[in-house]
Amino acid sequence: MRLRNFVFGLLFFASAQAGAGSVPVTMCFDIDDNLLFLPTKISIFKKVGADPALENEIRVSTHDFALIREQLGRPGKYEQYETRKTPETSSFRTFSDAGDGPGGRNYILEDVKEMIEGGTFDANVGPAWKSFVYAMQSEEAAKHVCFATARSHHPQEVLEMLEYLVSKGKISRTPLQKNLHCVGGAENPSAEKAKVFREMLAKLEAQPVPNTWPKIRKPSGTGKAAYHLWTFSDDDWGNYEKTRDVIAEDMKAGKYGNIKVMLFFTGLNNPKHAPEAIVLDGQGGWRPIERNEEQDVARMLKVQGFDCDELLRFDPRANAPGH
Ligand SMILES: [Mg+2]
Question: The whole model's pTM is what?
Answer without folding.
Answer: 0.80
